[in-house]
């Protein structure tokens, strides 16, 4: 079984995907580079395997191609720890007829009992429900992602042109969204803000505008605090 410790921040999503993918190489073609990586790290302990994963140029390049633009450099570096579990992706998959939870912040894979590929959907549901139940009843910030076969392949196989068109449209939108996420808007935002400030100063309403903005911000923060809403999403 492939299991790696998470050794860096902000990589749990990529690591969760790889935890599923690298344990399914007997069912699908993962490509020569990932196959070579798995074979190379096969005898490593989880901690060293995690370091190898974070140092892989291929994995790092693909991960960074989806990362948000960060114009401000954070020079502080730390390894992942249990506190990162608040907003965290983990993987659930069937390996050797057993349902496993693969969480890089845990010391080892966690078994959730017998499971087959066919029974996986029914077996994983109560496990997910139990995990969600650990949080307050009003908490709704969870993401559930499924790794599946490219839906365009099946659409082509059965001749479903409408489905194929929808899937192609999705990918066009994803490319646009990813381009926006990676773009650095700091310069644009700065120039826009300077233009607004100049206009407010010209109108003589700058101080009033600032105070009203502060008041609105405090009101929003108080409302979010009452609702128990934080700034990030809670991921499973």
Automatic annotation (TrEMBL):
Residues 212-226 have a biased composition (Basic and acidic residues). It catalyses: Thiol-dependent hydrolysis of ester, thioester, amide, peptide and isopeptide bonds formed by the C-terminal Gly of ubiquitin (a 76-residue protein attached to proteins as an intracellular targeting signal). SUPFAM superfamilies: Cysteine proteinases. GO terms for cellular component: cytoplasm. The record marks 103 as: Important for enzyme activity. InterPro entries: Papain-like_cys_pep_sf, Peptidase_C12_UCH, Peptidase_C12_UCH_sf, UCH_C. Transmembrane segments: none annotated. Residues 212-236 are annotated as: Disordered. Coiled coil: none annotated. GO terms for molecular function: cysteine-type deubiquitinase activity. It comes from the Eukaryota. The keyword GTP-binding does not apply. PROSITE patterns: UCH_DOMAIN. It holds the Pfam family Peptidase_C12. This is Ubiquitin carboxyl-terminal hydrolase.
């Amino acid at each position: 079984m492939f299991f790696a410790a998470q050794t860096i921040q902000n990589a749990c999503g990529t690591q969760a995907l790889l935890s599923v993918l690298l344990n399914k190489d007997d069912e699908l073609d993962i490509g020569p580079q990932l196959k070579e990586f798995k074979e190379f790290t096969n005898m490593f302990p989880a901690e060293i395997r995690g370091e190898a994963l974070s140092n892989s140029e291929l994995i790092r390049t693909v991960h960074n191609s989806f990362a948000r633009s960060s114009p401000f450099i954070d020079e502080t570096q730390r390894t992942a720890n249990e506190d990162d579990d608040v907003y965290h992706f983990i993987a659930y998959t069937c390996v050797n007829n057993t349902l496993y939870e693969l969480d890089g912040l845990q010391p080892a894979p966690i078994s959730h009992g017998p499971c087959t590929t066919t029974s996986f959907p029914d077996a994983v549901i109560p496990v997910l429900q139990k995990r969600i139940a650990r949080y307050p009843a009003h908490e709704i910030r969870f993401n559930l992602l499924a790794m599946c076969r490219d839906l365009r392949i099946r659409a082509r196989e059965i001749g479903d042109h409408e489905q194929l068109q929808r899937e192609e449209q999705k990918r066009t939108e994803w490319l646009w969204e990813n381009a926006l996420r990676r773009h650095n808007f700091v310069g644009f935002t700065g120039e826009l803000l300077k233009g607004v400030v100049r206009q407010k100063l010209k109108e003589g309403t700058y101080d009033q505008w600032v105070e009203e903005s502060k008041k609105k911000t405090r009101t929003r923060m108080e409302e979010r605090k009452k609702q128990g809403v934080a700034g990030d999403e809670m991921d499973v």
